[in-house]
Design goal:
By secondary structure, the chain is mainly alpha-helical. The chain is 80% helix and 0% strand. The protein has a single domain (15-219, 235-445), classed as Growth Hormone, Chain: A (Up-down Bundle), CATH 1.20.1250.20.
Length: 454
Amino acid sequence: MNDATETSFPEQNEHTPADRRNALVIVFLVVFIDLLGFGIVLPLLPLYTTDLLVPLMPSESMRPWRGVVLGLLMASFSFMQFLCSPIWGRLSDRVGRRPVLLIGLTASVSFYALFGIASEIGAQGHHALALALLFVSRLGAGIAGATISTAQAVIADSTPPENRAHGMALIGAAFGIGFTFGPLLGFASLFVPRAGAPGFAAATFSLVALILALRLLPETLRTQGSAARKRWLDWQNLLVTLKTPSVGLLVMIFFLATWSFGSLESTLALVNKVILNPDADLHVELTKEAARSTERYNFLIFAYVGMVLMLIQGFVYRRFVRRLGEIRFLRAGIVLLWLGFTSAVSVLLVRQSLADSGWLIPSALAAMTVAVVGFAFITPSVHALISNRSDPARQGEVLGVNQSAAALARILGPMCGPALFFVGNSHIWPFVFGALMITVVFFLALRVQPATAH
């Protein structure tokens, strides 16, 4: 190790098994907390159409603007992740992983608490102030959540290349657990008289993770990149990352796959409305009572999605990736995601006959499950492949670029999915679009070859 590294990071010369174990546990908690809050908030946001936006924009002529505001509220989190992921990643290459994760957790405590305060204010009838605070809370949570690329860099620091996919799947399992319990917590909150309960609960969990990180999280960065001393975000290096064939191709694959899956996620509540309220006009908001009933089912369905992610990445993927390899899992995931989209198209086209036979809900769940399993295979595979093909001194920056591209995809998905959903009465076009995009991804994935040794 060179002198500069020893001077900047004297405690990092040796990593004991306990240090590595503590790092992995804290990273698991960081990702879990991030997705716990996201899982609470995502199914709740459509309710604010009725609770906040209708009182602020009551006339029917203002209805399109309600949709615009709701879309901006939903996209604000991902927009800040898009902007901040490369910056956090590069900063973690410069000052270390530990301080960046601690800052992110501290911000999570603050902004989830603000989400709870905004919900309380909205319940008291101060709709404009509540909406403004909700925007601030989602923007801030996006900045805090952008540190997930640093969490991935900790995994890369703490695992040898042959175990990298196994470690990245640990993040996927934490993602799934958070996305399971977040919606369940949101579901329970519908029966609690305090409107701010979900936000305050998420803030409390973030505080617990922060305390544990302060006590247990070691610094895992071994080397300090010389370029990291210049600027927080180097656009030239960012372009170099994207132009590197072995890395840029994987970033593009993950970007397109996440965009297509984001179209599915953003229309899931609308599909639930079709299935659970077949006589409802999709162009008109449900009554408050009907909306609450539908949202209870939405929470449970989102929790089911999280459970599938948890089981697949936490058990199936981690068990078999060493035997089958990341590239095979990547291609299998792409095929499954394509099958999920095409199955969704089929279900929607024949939904009336399926409803008459009692098979509509099971068929819809089966199609969604196949798509989620596919995405669960893709995500850790891409992260591991990118990490193994990146300069160790730039792990945070490169993984941050990939996370930023995924955040951009999560902005585009909600923009395209709901708009395509209302093209025609069959509501198949978001899934046709997803299937076509995944077809392109499949041919790109055929170009991914095993890496040569560094």
